[in-house]
Amino acid sequence: MSVSDWQAFISQTDARMGELRGGIPGVAKGFHEVARAAIKAGALDSKTKELMALAIGIAARCDGCLAYHSKAAAKYGATREEVMETIGVAVYMGGGPSMIYGAEALAAFDAFFEG
């Protein structure tokens, strides 16, 4: 899938996820806690962790992952150059499909980056 409007994609996905969370509140709460704990700054800062999540999202070919982790990487101060290097690692690990999703990830980051 190719997303042309990442802002609208997140809005649509947020609405769908809200409905899902309402149907499985315990699972949703548990997932939220895992996500919060995983991204919390520790030995690695939150920006680095979001870039890692973005690379995994590229390799896993997950549009939602590209949207949310691009937005979060921008929020934590990632630069376009850092995202480019992140995409490079994802391509190394995921081959040709990661190259395609890397281009999508860059488009998603550009939609949220204010630099």
Automatic annotation (TrEMBL):
Pfam families in alphabetical order: CMD
SUPFAM superfamilies, per database record: AhpD-like
Organism per entry: Roseibium litorale
InterPro entries linked to this entry: AhpD-like (IPR029032), AhpD_core (IPR004675), CMD-like (IPR003779)
Record domain Carboxymuconolactone decarboxylase-like: where: 25-107
Superkingdom assignment: Bacteria
Family matches, as NCBIfam families: ahpD_dom
Record's protein name: Carboxymuconolactone decarboxylase family protein
